[in-house]
Design a protein that fits this description.
Elements: E1 30-36, E2 39-40, E3 43-44, E4 48-54, E5 60-68, E6 74-82, H1 84-87, E7 98-101, E8 104-106, H2 113-124, E9 135-136, E10 152-158, E11 180-184, H3 185-194, H4 200-212
Parallel strand pairs: 5-10
Antiparallel strand pairs: 1-4, 2-3, 5-6, 5-8, 6-7, 6-11, 9-10
Helix pairs in contact: 3-4
Length: 213
């Protein structure tokens, strides 16, 4: 059995907190704090407090861009991402917050999920393709339904590596300096099994992609 092939090293970066603006009401996320009751026909539960978050763009597209190498082996594009909540995780176990992920991004209000997927593909990988090329990759999923109503829409698309340009990104420092790698699909799945690729949406999309290729 061949030795496992590790994923490339992501960029080594760090985060520095320059100001704590936790009480600023004009943030990316909005905290909603409700008093709720569960109504079951004519029975009502005791009231309970429930916190959830909302944001202007709620749902997201996840894109598996893939191609075949000269030997016919499927590859998929991964992109490095710095995730501040993981980097700044206050408790054990500590986890490296520089993750390899499939490209993904928020769908703008009123935007069709396919169009959002095509836009994010160009912003994050540098492939310019029509929305109609984005093929559904299984059903939608709820990544964290305990605190946000976000839906993930999954797509896959066959790409030609020769047509890829340097991506423009979205202007966020979180995306600056990201690395992009074309990784054999079977090695990416092996990395998921080892725990080297812990992003849940990426593993789900990779497993779905392997089922159809």
């Amino acid at each position: 059995m061949p030795s496992p092939v590790p994923l490339p090293e992501p960029p080594k970066v760090a985060l520095e907190i320059v100001e704590d603006r936790s009480l600023d009401p004009h943030g990316f996320l909005t905290l909603k704090r409700y008093e709720l009751v569960v109504v079951d026909q004519d029975r009502r539960s005791r009231p309970f407090r429930y916190d959830m978050v909302e944001r202007h763009s709620l749902d997201a597209a996840v894109i598996a861009a893939h191609h075949l190498d000269a030997a016919g082996r499927p590859h998929v594009y991964l992109r490095s991402s710095i995730r501040p909540p993981v980097v700044l995780r206050p408790c054990e176990p500590k986890i490296d917050g520089i993750l390899w992920e499939l490209p993904a991004g928020l769908i703008e209000p009123g935007e069709e999920p396919r169009a959002g997927a095509a836009r994010e593909l160009e912003e994050e990988l540098g492939f310019s393709l029509e929305p109609e090329r984005m093929m559904p990759l299984g059903p939608r999923a709820l990544p964290a339904p305990g605190f946000i109503g976000e839906i993930h829409f999954f797509f896959h698309v066959r790409v030609d590596p020769a047509t890829r340009r340097d991506p423009a990104g979205d202007g966020s420092p979180v995306e600056d300096g990201a690395l992009i790698e074309s990784v054999p699909l079977d090695e990416a799945l092996a990395a998921c099994r080892r725990g080297d690729l812990p992003d849940a949406k990426t593993e789900l999309a990779l497993r779905r992609l392997a089922e159809i290729l």
